[in-house]
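Now for our target.
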Amino acid sequence: MSNGYVKNVFLAIADISGYTQFMVSKDIEIKHSQYIISQLIESIIQQIKIPLQISKLEGDAVFLYATTNNSQYTYAEIRKEVGEKLLRFFSAFHDKLHEIKKTHECACGACSNLDALKLKIVVHCGEAFFYQINQFNELSGKDVILIHRLLKNSVPEEEYILMTDAAYSDIKFPVRIKVREGIENYEHLGKVKTVTYCYQPS
């Protein structure tokens, strides 16, 4: 593929968990449910700025990346920006959820089940192959496959950042966070060392 190139990247997926159950529950008002999900996705998108970029929206999730060899930012700046934004996604998500609760006094299934919606984030650092199909920029490669596999994991908590060991060692968080180490095992990819930060709403 002549128009492709490989770059070192931070890869992340911010995923609204509980989405499927929320959308297919009985008595759900489809217009309200889609509005709510759209608003929550938008709250995350608003926090994303270069060097972080959106690869694509995947239904209930935002797939994003930051190239580590960015000419506009030093690697130290990129590490810091990624760490700050990962934590900021949670506060933005919950601020929007609280706003929706306050402004939508509705008894429909969607508006009555807002507490079922949670945010989980998975992060990996590696390589991605960038290429173009028509007007769309696509990312592929082993590390892109891994970041998507990480969405299916053994973390029991509802809201968290699950990072590969490679990602955690490269991210600079603005505050000290409490984490625990773990291992996920995926067919064809093997064992993956992970570090998990569990979000606790204030």
User: Anything to note?
Assistant: The chain has six helices and eight strands. The helical segments are 19-24, 30-45, 75-103, 109-112, 142-149, 165-170. The mean pLDDT is 90.
